[in-house]
Amino acid sequence: MTAPLQVECEAAGVPVRLFWQQQWHSVIAPAVRWFERRRWWLEEPRAERGRRGVVDHEIWRVQIQGDGPIEVGLGTAESPAADSPAAEDAADQSHSTESPTPEIYTLDVSRHLTSGRWRLLRVH
Prior knowledge:
By secondary structure, this protein is mostly beta strands. The chain contains one helix and nine strands, in the order E-E-E-E-E-E-E-H-E-E.
């Protein structure tokens, strides 16, 4: 099963950030690219010479870490609005000086060469 992704790339086309699980994540290790042969004959009547993306998929393996919650309304995606009772409870629990380190994930993502759309293929 695949899912669409929003991906930001550097000028050379290497992924540097992506939006996944309602949060932006930064690529924290060098991304690795390869191509996988696709079963084009199931989707295309023929493979035209020189047409990009018909025979192979471009795959990137990226190691990512969350950038933090995104702002939604008065609170954030992970914290309640400042004037809510839940915010008071959260404030009581947040007096710790250490903030949790966001998890690190390794993903395989694919870019459709013709349209430029990105899809999540696997989470390792």
